[in-house]
Predict the structure of LRRCT domain-containing protein.
Amino acid sequence: MLLMQRTKPLPAGKMDTLRTLSVCLVFLLPLLSSAQNDACELSASPAGCVCSGPNVVCTGYWPTYRELHSGDIDSKLESLTITNTTKTNLIKCESVFGTLTNLRKLDLSNNQINFTRPRSFSSICFPNLEQLVLDDNALRLSAHTTFKSLDRLRELHLNNALYRNQSVSEQVTHTFIKSSMPSLEEIMLNDNLLGDLSSSTFNFNLSSGSSPLSRIHLRNSRLGMINTNLFEVETLPNLSFIDLSMNSITGLPIENLESFDKFSSALTINLTGNPLTCNCNLKDFVVWLQSNDTEVTVVDQEKLNCSMDSIVHGGKRIIDLDPMELKCGHIQNTDMDEQMKTSYILLIAVLSIIGLLALVILFMRRKEIIKLCNQMKQATKETFDTHHTSYVYSDITQARRETPEHSAVDV
Ligand SMILES: *[C@@H]1O[C@H](CO)[C@@H](O)[C@H](O)[C@H]1NC(C)=O
Ligand SMILES: *[C@@H]1O[C@H](CO)[C@@H](O)[C@H](O)[C@H]1NC(C)=O
Ligand SMILES: *[C@@H]1O[C@H](CO)[C@@H](O)[C@H](O)[C@H]1NC(C)=O
Ligand SMILES: *[C@@H]1O[C@H](CO)[C@@H](O)[C@H](O)[C@H]1NC(C)=O
Ligand SMILES: *[C@@H]1O[C@H](CO)[C@@H](O)[C@H](O)[C@H]1NC(C)=O
Ligand SMILES: *[C@@H]1O[C@H](CO)[C@@H](O)[C@H](O)[C@H]1NC(C)=O
Ligand SMILES: *[C@@H]1O[C@H](CO)[C@@H](O)[C@H](O)[C@H]1NC(C)=O
Ligand SMILES: *[C@@H]1O[C@H](CO)[C@@H](O)[C@H](O)[C@H]1NC(C)=O
């Protein structure tokens, strides 16, 4: 269009050349764009979806069972994304998806799924599923076998995925224990109202071998304390990263630190954005953080600050603290000391002012005072003089009296 408009003032010969060019472009453009998005490798694709290579993306449209089983989709489809629909209910997968033998990635993020059934995600339908994304839904994991025997699943994304009207940690724990996911390496549970997790949450019931789980994301999940047995090397030998950032963790007791230290693999922990409270309860953590004995890496440890709830150390960098200064029982005493100090300062100030006023008054009345002084001097002198003479007299008299040879009668 732009080309045609620009050609208007040009002579006829040149216009012909341009016309041929633009016609060429019109034919070339679709070819170019299809070269950018891989050509669909499936013989059929659901009508409301976009296919590229072995992947299908459906936005605002949920494909039917029949559409997913037309042509070679069920054997060739590798990645299926269905987002932005109003679907709320997921019954067992056989009725919704059927068996998709080659599916590696299923992304159902940003729908309104609030209800799942046993076997909503089962190896019957997804024998080769490696990545399951359920972000931004409102799932109630009421069915304990929601993720049934997904033997090859390596990544489970449940960010902002769980129903927000209740504490869901118990449901999560039950679901994980009952749903077998023996190959799971990464689990994302960010932005859910989890609350504190029970010790067995990630203790998957694996009949053979140990869990390969390596990365656990629990950012912004309302965690307050970390159950001592939640991250244990015995159940999670391959654990290498725990994201605990943006939670409500006020401190990590020695039991947590000891269980972290048992991981021989390089374990990294993100504690950014927690209200760590710098009092005696944080002492072990501070010592641990400052020592070089641990192989555990704390992300940005030099940026961890004491929360403003820390009475004495609020806002200070934790890495700079002297562990000996972290006190609890004495917090009130320290407070009292502070108050006493303030009182003393006030007292000294008041006394200084009074003293200063006295000096000023003295200075202003200096003439009277000098006069008074002189009068007093005079008076003293007179008294002294009289006293002096009488003293001398009486002295002599006394001396005489005290001399044993003389008696009062002699005088
Ligand atoms: C999702 O759907 C709504 C309407 O239902 C639409 O306005 C919005 O643009 C869609 N978002 C995406 C990312 O497609
Ligand atoms: C799921 O959401 C739909 C629509 O918002 C609602 O009618 C239904 O009751 C919800 N189901 C559950 C189990 O919350
Ligand atoms: C959330 O929970 C409250 C009380 O438990 C209840 O009144 C409310 O209806 C619930 N909301 C939804 C959407 O289920
Ligand atoms: C663990 O798995 C075994 C075999 O699959 C099962 O019998 C047992 O009940 C499971 N334990 C829990 C706590 O789910
Ligand atoms: C643990 O991780 C290492 C390398 O990251 C891997 O070779 C090993 O198989 C993993 N262990 C398990 C039980 O998956
Ligand atoms: C640690 O957590 C913070 C806050 O969630 C985030 O911004 C940062 O990128 C994280 N760092 C690492 C290394 O994970
Ligand atoms: C830890 O190592 C750093 C340098 O690597 C050193 O400055 C610091 O004093 C060491 N801390 C302890 C407690 O040994
Ligand atoms: C921690 O405190 C230091 C100064 O003490 C400040 O520069 C830094 O921004 C603070 N960090 C955070 C994450 O608030």
Residues 395 and 401 are 9 Å apart (CA to CA).
